[in-house]
Amino acid sequence: MTEKLYYQDSYLSEFEAEVLSCVPKGNKYEVVLSRTAFFPEGGGQTADTGVLVSGQQRIQVLDVQEKDGVVLHETDGLLEVGAVVQGELNFQERFLKMQEHTGEHIISGIVHRRFGYQNVGFHLGKEEVTMDYDGPLTEEELRQIEYEANRAVAENIPIVILEPSKEELPHIFYRSKMEIEGQVRIVQIPGYDSCACCAPHVKTTGSVGMIKITGAIRYKGGMRLSLHCGFRALSDYREKEASVKQISNRLSAKQEEVVCAVKRLEEELAALKEKNKRLQEQLVKAALKEEEQKLLENPVANLLLFAEEMDPAAMRNFVNEAMEKTDGICGVFVGSKEQGFRYVLGKKDGSICSIGKCLNEAFEGKGGGKPPMIQGSLKGNPEAIRGFLEKE
């Protein structure tokens, strides 16, 4: 059994220990120490990282797992059995996790007390913290939960760790997602939460810092919340603040007015789209009118249009209207001979699929569809494409 220093002092960042074993594991090594402050992966939280120092060696601790009470350190180097090493945690990473894990306890305790929902899932990774609850929450309820959680931080409540005996345990209320064998470790935040948990936590709620719910989505009939606390909440705020500043500058609007500015921009964009739609319709009609003389001379002539720009709806409209005027091949090609063309082709008699296949083979194209209309892309110049289709 490894002596688990992280339970004795969650703020311990350096320690000494003896190397009990070191065995190869692929291109890494699995090291067992007599004692450790490295917390292994567990309780929804990823493992601590850091280094083991032996003489001039600085061996990286890449992952930590626990098996049958023994803590296994995955390292990138070999250590001599019997050597005394100095362990150094990446304590900044550890402290961020303790802030966020303790913040999760506060939120989950409030959700359980106010709504009776259970925390049925928890993940604390390097980039994201998520909590899953088995019931829905409204936007207003989430604001209230967040406010109460930050009030708990302001109260700076000492966090209590209990390891009750089997006789004491039935008399203690605590949340747990599973049946626990052996010694139960309970993390209590008086007035807010009591939960079985194996992970290290900060010593007082004040050390959690600001608690911010950053996302909420419906998930498996309940709710999945995203959370940031303390320094991660500060980092998240700075990133979003930088984004708002950039948007503000680009829209020439005050930061507090960017939503209104974006709405105005959306209205302008919608108006431009409507104008573009009308212009595209006029383009289609004008293009078909130009082809009327050709149809007088040959009622089954191909009607083909080449354009630099046209939206997909207008392309399909052209082909649909052209098929009403001729039994020939109807098509529109948008692009350039340098960049290639997007195309839509149609033909009344249903032979357009075989024509499209031949066209793609001849001009490095791809695409398909169902009669009477297909679409795709190809490369070539307009004259060659026209000439090819005149032979079909």
Automatic annotation (TrEMBL):
GO cellular component terms given for this protein: cytoplasm
Coarse class of the protein's main subcellular location: cytoplasm
Family matches, as InterPro entries: Ala-tRNA-synth_IIc_core (IPR018165), Ala-tRNA-synth_IIc_N (IPR018164), Alanyl-tRNA_Editing_Enzymes (IPR051335), Thr/Ala-tRNA-synth_IIc_edit (IPR018163), Transl_B-barrel_sf (IPR009000), tRNA_SAD (IPR012947)
UniProt keyword annotations, A-Z: Coiled coil, Metal-binding, Zinc
GO biological process per UniProt: alanyl-tRNA aminoacylation
One matching Pfam family: tRNA_SAD
UniProt-annotated location(s): Cytoplasm
Coiled coil spans: 237-292
Tagged with keyword Zinc-finger: no
Alanyl-transfer RNA synthetases family profile domain mapped to chain residues: 1-224
GO molecular function: alanine-tRNA ligase activity; aminoacyl-tRNA deacylase activity; ATP binding; metal ion binding; nucleic acid binding
Name of the featured protein: Alanyl-tRNA editing protein
Cofactor(s) needed by this chain: Zn(2+)
Superkingdom of the source species: Bacteria
